């Protein structure tokens, strides 16, 4: 049921993409699993520590994973991972690590067919927005590399010394929060020309789009 309703009007065809040259409007892409083949935040956490530290950290997260089976709150388990792996890291250090990660990981993470569709919307002068539940600092280097007009993502909280607290500045950017953040950026009556996503967390964003692409990107690097 969910998959059928998400598909709605289906993915934009090549003909539709070529209909207009300018002013295509706002087009939103989920990031993990849509533009990428794997979760970028998980891959970043693996990349920045050695295997032993990663395994030890994931072991300590087992109680949080078990609790998730009851509360089903993805934000809570993500915050637990942030506390385990990133707490007290400075903003400057984290931004530098995120840039380095994006440089080495992009070729193996980004889907060629997603990039092709992204470029086609760019040719039509669409406002291209990445809307992600992953931490904004981790996704930002990818967004800049793609030439995104805007990034909407989960915001990490920092203390007075600009160190990661282990919490979020606002809600996890998933589900209805994606729509709320889009409307906050573009206005309550904006039109979402197209949206692309791959999970139930993209459902609300896809529902407000004129053209919906649910799990339409399949290619691997």
Automatic annotation (TrEMBL):
Nucleotide-binding recorded as keyword: no
InterPro entries according to UniProt: HAD-like_SerB (IPR050582), HAD-like_sf (IPR036412), HAD_hydro_SerB1 (IPR006385), HAD_sf (IPR023214)
GO function terms (MF aspect): hydrolase activity
SUPFAM superfamilies reported for this sequence: HAD-like
Keyword line: Hydrolase
Keyword Nucleotide-binding on entry: no
Protein name: HAD-IB family hydrolase
Organism: Phenylobacterium ferrooxidans
